[in-house]
Amino acid sequence: MNCLFLFIFLVLTVSALPISRAKVPAIIVFGDSSVDSGNNNHIQTILKSNHNPYGRDFQGGQPTGRFSNGRIPPDFISEAFGLKPSIPAYLDPEFTIKDFATGVCFASAGTGYDNSTSNVLNVIPLWKEIMYYKVYQRRLRKYLGMEKANLILKEALYLISIGTNDFLENYYTIPGGRSSQFNVGQYEDFLIGIAENFVRELYRLGARKISLSGLVPMGCLPLERTTNVMAGNECIEKYNDVAKEFNMKLQWLVLRLIMELPEIKLVFSNPYDLVLEIIQNPSFFGFENAAVACCGTGLFEMGYLCDSYNPFTCVDANKYVFWDSFHPTERTSQIVSDNLMKTVLAPFL
């Protein structure tokens, strides 16, 4: 069976799969800062966003630990499914298992598929996120009873968004690290292997509805463009090419797992094209600036460098694609989330 025939066969098979119309009772989140709703607030790391001006457009106007001026994609997705308008962080002591029963976030800003990525800034590794999830399962069963809890765990939508830090904070940044052990293609394959094991473990634990997210055009993040001085602060195309190649490998992984795991409803959420379109044509989406971020000078500020004492932070974040040098504004997140709900997540409605 040649590759083209296999691809056509898999695509036709996936499109023929029955679509479940069961209501999603909970949103369960794994990943990095793209989906972390505040877990890093409660661990020993310098990578935090629990200070102003983060969260200034969130309900109540207070920082939550989200790397945004407001809400992030899981919040919008939860609301779109008729659930609560924001997903609580599992480590936040203000929330209980009652709150977590309809949605919970295990993500940690700065983490990656690779354990060595989480070591860079001492954040929660992916394997520990799954450990927290196992404890959550036990708590949920104790709270709701075995039958009801297992139904929620089976019908919940699991969102996985991770991978950018493996390249930008690890592979291309740490001398003598992964780049000395793997060429970039080999490192992609190494990460794909971890992604596969993670999805299989979730499946073994009862998850059936899973969204695996690809990478954004990471060479166009303001922080990366700032360092690309010799090319006029344009996007770093090498990084974008890696993102596209990695996304293709993730897509093939998703197709293969659908064939191998009975009952799984696994989708690949690829934000790359839409985010690139927003960056290249910001005015079409109502933005005024996509090259620099809202916070500070918009060139390199993130985390503690994006603070309330910086006099340069923009007045209206809705005019900017990026909030800080690494993360989108609430408005960008909403556009991307709305698109996901109309496309790959629509079968779960």
Trace the largest sheet across and list its strands.
2-1-3-4-5
Structural class computed from helices and strand pairing: alpha/beta
| Rg result | 19 Å
- Binned, the helix content reads 40-55%
Largest sheet, strands/sense/barrel: 5 strands, parallel
**How many helices does DSSP assign?**
13
Features:
single chain; about 350 residues; alpha/beta; Rossmann fold; 13 helices; about 5% strand; globular
Layout of secondary structure:
Elements: H1 3-16, E1 27-31, H2 73-80, H3 97-100, E2 103-105, H4 115-120, H5 126-144, H6 146-155, E3 157-161, H7 164-171, H8 178-181, H9 184-204, E4 209-213, H10 222-227, H11 237-260, E5 265-269, H12 272-280, H13 330-342
Provide an overview of this structure:
The protein has 13 helices and 5 strands. It is α/β, with parallel strands linked by helices. The chain has a domain of 231 residues: Rossmann fold (3-Layer(aba) Sandwich). A 5-stranded parallel β-sheet has the order 2-1-3-4-5, with helices on both faces. α2 crosses α13. The chain is globular and about 60 Å long.
Task: Report a brief summary of the structure.
The protein is of the alpha/beta class and 349 residues long. It contains 13 helices and 5 strands.
